[in-house]
Amino acid sequence: RRTPVQPAQEAAAPATAVAVVSARIGDIPFTVSVTGSLQALDDVIISAKVPGKIAKVHVREGDSVRAGQVVAEQDTSDLAAQVRQAEAALKSAQARLKQAETALALQPTQNETSLRQAEAALEAARARLRAMETGARRQERQQVEQQVASAKANLDNAQANMERVRRLYQQDAVPKQQLDAAQTAYDIALAQYRTAQEQLSLVQEGAREEDIEAQRAMVRQAEEAVRLARTGDLQLRVRQDEVNAAKALVAQADAGLYYARQQYESAFIRTPISGTVAMRAVEPGQMAGAGTPIVRVVNLNSIFFEANVSETQVRYVRIGQPVSVTVDAYPGETFRGVVSRIYPVGAEGSRDFIVRVDMRNDGGKLRPEMFARGEILVDVHRDVVLIPKDAIVIQDGKQVVFVVEGDVARRVTVQTGYINGTNAEVRGVRSGAQVVVQGQENLRDGDKVRVEQLQTAEATTASGS
Q1: What is the pLDDT of residues 353-365, one digit of tens each?
Q2: Helix crossing, 77-134 with 176-205: angle to 10°?
Q3: Model confidence, pTM
């Protein structure tokens, strides 16, 4: 408590020089201050996919590139040879498939022909046996003669077919199996013809008992030949299996060619994004293994601000809030952004949370790794009393300001609301009051003051930051 003084002494006390400013009605924002660095969303290091020697590098730092552009080339001589080898393997597999399909298409006809020939041979053998057992008659001799003629016709047909198939085989139009089948059919026809001749001879000469027994054996042999000829479906399945195997080889060769072409194409190293070359890591003649960095490309239009927010303030931050961003490289210039993402986990040690702020980079001024500061606009109190925050002092554990009334300073206890870098929202002071902003530290209620510089301009409010 101040010691009472005589009125004469009070009159003699000098007035304290102060400066004042008028309290005003205005808006004050609540912002969260953050720091961090600029990053690029599209920032890629392009690496070699296959090992090889670098033949060409088409770009340097600062060059603009477009998505899909070739930025470097590896030596492709070995890879090109592998492509040609794979192409030849595919053609060979396709030729084998064609042969297998041709054999499959001809197999039913061959089966039918073989069966008819075997049945004819069996009938002839049985007829010969009957003739030998009963003795030949004139009609029988005529019949045997007709069989000889028929067997001769079959032989001629089989011979013509064999020669035709041999010519096709020599032209690689049919597989070896088909030639073998034609040869077998010819051999059977030849044997049947000879058998018919022998039967004719027996009819003419008469059969002995041992000849009859031999003919019976021939009948049994002919019956077996018919049985085998009727198993043509099995041969058809074999041909189908050959076609399936040939198709598998074609698919395998086609996959090998696709892989070889992919390897060849990988030697032409392309950028997946459009942007600016930030790093050139290799030179022509250098060996590059799989994964070796070649160039780094950054899209400056994808710049964003990666800001650190303390754990005590992250609760105020919401997606969509506007942000004012400044960088040391452009003093006095403010860039606008919007909170687009809040990372859910804090960083170890600092306990800060990462907030992503999307920004426009008109003119390409902003670059990755630039240090940046930001003010996230959380809320705005409108139409409140504002004074400079420096006018507030602590006395007796209370927040107070001094208001000049005439030539006397009156102490006013205030409650503060939002405070930013310049101003403070207060309750307890009316708009227009002359608030002391210089010289208030040693004032007491009732002290005489002398306003040396009356600032009539209203307190400045930072808005939008």
Answers
A1: 999 999 988 888 8
A2: 10
A3: 0.54
